[in-house]
Amino acid sequence: MKNFKHILSYVISLLILIILFFWIDKDSLRLLLNTSIKSVLISILFALILYCSSGIELYFVRKQFGVSLGLIDIFFLPIVGNLWSFIFPFQGNLLFTTLFFKQRYNMKISDSFSISIYLYLVILFFAGLLGLIFAIIHKMFFSWFGLIASILLLNPFIVYLVNLLIKDLRYSRFLWVKKVQEFFASIVDNANQLWRNFGFTFIILGINIVRLFVNILWFYWISFSLGFGLTLFEAGLISIVMSISLIIKITPNNLGVAQLVTGGFVSLMNVQPDNAVLITLFASATTMLLIFTVGLYGNFYYFRTIDLRSLIKKSDQ
Prior knowledge:
Layout: H1 2-23, H2 26-33, H3 37-63, H4 71-87, H5 92-105, H6 109-137, H7 144-153, H8 155-168, H9 175-196, H10 198-226, H11 232-245, H12 257-268, H13 273-291, H14 294-303, H15 308-316
């Protein structure tokens, strides 16, 4: 069943990419294929900076649970996590971090889940905040866009309410049901505690602001390299949508889905959709270069193997 899900995700990704290939202007595709080595190297540098920012974020989050990461972990963990996301499309990154921290630091699975959920919620909160600012500036507050942005912004309050409701629920007399309830309650409670640590959350939001700024510069550089001439604002819009779409774990490293969602969404904001698709494809190609070089080396460093079958066996344990 797991193999079927993996194969299905690759098929979905391939079908979406084929559809995008026939939809995108062929002259624009040629620009993508004729990109200079200099542009690729600069793009790789941007991607490395973003990976390092994710590693620093992991350092601060894991420290809340008594785990102190070294410089090598800060550099390798996000890239190896992306490698696992490509191999195991359905939450491969979560699978890797859970396995890694359980083996190396004996960290509880519920704690690893809490961290992943908290980081997803931070992304949604940040996207909601920026989306709401955009909606107010462009007089779209009383629209579907403003509504979605408001819901995303309120997710810490929603987590707080869910945590209160869970604490009031009675635990089942059936052992397996009780264990599931305790596991879920632990995840929600940990995520809520992280949100309520305002100093810590401020640091994480600061890292996300830096990451957004780097992302905007990265997409702006790609746009400049391809000759599209996007504005910084349009590059920022693509960056925000891309960050939200990455939460949707359907295809390998979200390849295809991220491009489809980003292109469709920015078209509603009067941004050329095929330009957005090509920019995100270029960015995805850059990250793939890193995950299949640095990521494979990092995986060997941690697990002493680059054998994909071995990775699959580890995921089934």
